[in-house]
Amino acid sequence: MFDKNSIIGLVLILGIMIGFAYLNQPTPQELQTYSNAQDSLKLLEKQDDSLQNVLSINQIKTDSIRTVDTSAKNDAFGIFAPFANGTEEFSTIENENLRITFSNKGGRIYRIQLKKYKNYTQSPLFLAEGQENEMGFSFASNESKVINTKDLYFTPVISENKKSISMFVKLNDGQFIEQKYSFDANTNVLKYKLKLEGMNNVIAQNSGDIDIFWKSHLLPQEKTHDAEERVSTIYYRIDGEEPSYLSEGTEAVEKIKSKMNWVSFKQQYFNQTIIADKGFTYSELETKNDPDKKYVKITSAKLSFVYNHEASESYDMTFYFGPNHYKTLEKFDLQMERIVTMGWGIFRWVNKYVVVNVFAFLNQYITSFGIIILLLTILIKTALFPLVYKSYMSAAKMKVLKPEIDEIKEKHGNDMTKVQQENMKLYRKAGVNPFGGCIPALLQLPILFAMFQFFPSAFELRQQGFLWADDLSTYDSVLALPFSVPIYGSHVSLFALLMTISSLFYALYNVQSTGLTGQMKWISIIMPVAFLLTLNSFAAGLNYYYFLSNLATIAQQLTIKAFVDDKALHAQIQENKKKPIKKSKFQQKLEDMAKKRGVDTSKLGK
After folding, report:
1. pTM for the whole thing?
2. What ranges in 197-335 are assigned the alpha helix state H?
3. Of the residues 26, 33, 128, 357, which has the maximum number of CB atoms within 10 A of its CB?
4. What are the Cα distances from residue 317, in Å, to 176, 195, 305, 312, 359?
5. DSSP letters spanning 548-588
6. pLDDT number for residue 65
7. Can you tell me whether residue 27 is helix, strand or coil?
8. Interhelix angle for 416-430 vs 566-578, to 10°?
């Protein structure tokens, strides 16, 4: 039985429990929170079930896609389907001049770096970079599939010396495609061999060609995009003919069915060239402009060579990745030096046999191309001095005769026929050739125009500074204008200004010394200003040469003038008048022909 104290204790404990329960009962807000939590748990359970269902469905879809993808690749590549899957990886080989990076996808060249050169921003110079450079071989298989190697993953094997790399697609031990790239010297040449082993049972029997697809987005290397674009194009050489090229100024497409030796993607100072030992049997070449100006141009070529269905066939080719240097390209003995713009006809002969060789000779002893251009100018003007002297003397004689010429004009008035006849009699008596000053000047023009062609394309001048010009191959700028002047541009070239000032001084000197008047006087003065507008954006080396040439010509004329006495010259002409007129061979021949026809020749030549 419970005693009194036990009963009281139990009652107290029960009261405390009831009071604690009452004080700690949940509020309405807590009850709502608990209810929400329960709902959330139920929702999560449902979502988890849904997620599991989705994952199961996605797994089914992925498996289906993989099945479809595998099936599609089998349909597209046939026996080559296992090589259509992979991860792109890169390998590099290099020599002193080149660093070439290759992609295992396509076994192709991925990046071309010219180690000895920089672009206009002084960053490493890449001729080709990543996806902008594409190359692949295409052929039809006996499964009626068109296979392009750019879609296949090759296995790379690099030599121990890092000078060569082979890319393999091996169907089995006796059937494989190998692309081998190798350096055989420290040059800008990369040797290439395509080997097809046991592929005669894989390539379609009715297929007689294998095609190369080569495409390159030409990367900007120089200061002036428009100038680089104007001279960038595709050059090529048909076997036995002189090299040719696609239009530089416009987009162009050309199909060539003749055998071709080489194809070159040419920029202003660099090129990418592929040379086939056995030649290409068919070619399709195309150039496109880039409207966004990110690339200089987009060049592409489809090249074909013969496949003979032999058990083992190989094709040897050579890549040249380097500068448009005349002497370097000439060593290939394939007329590749024609890539370098030298002009045509006599202008090209002057550059090829004179200017290029003088530059090469002087560069052996002198590193400053500003000094080389100065010495070149002195050599050329010295060689042309006899012509300058003859031209000056002819002009001096015409100046001495000018009073008599004016007298004839005044005497016969508007009878221009009579004026010309009397003038010719005067010239013959005085022993003066009215064209004597023009002919020597015309003979100097080939040099002038040859320089115009040479300097903008001379690789030797690229990034060679002199005085205030940091690059003689492009324009020098001493002042940037806040606006652009049509034709002239938005900068001021000091060499172009000096060239113009010296030309104006020479023109004014000629007007004074020869007595030019009227239209000819103003043409000689206006021409230098017109040249300034055009030449302001041309190579600083060209304007520097023209400036030096003008100074040398003025110096020669002043020197000759110092030794020529106009009074003595006039006296000599008067003595010549007293002498009997000596008939030229041409005039004598005319008289002989006239005599045979019974014409009175006594008045001929009078």
Report:
1. 0.73
2. 225-230, 326-330
3. 128
4. 19, 11, 11, 17, 32
5. HHHHHHHHHHHHHHHH--HHHHHHHHHHHHHSPPPPPHHHH
6. 43
7. coil
8. 100
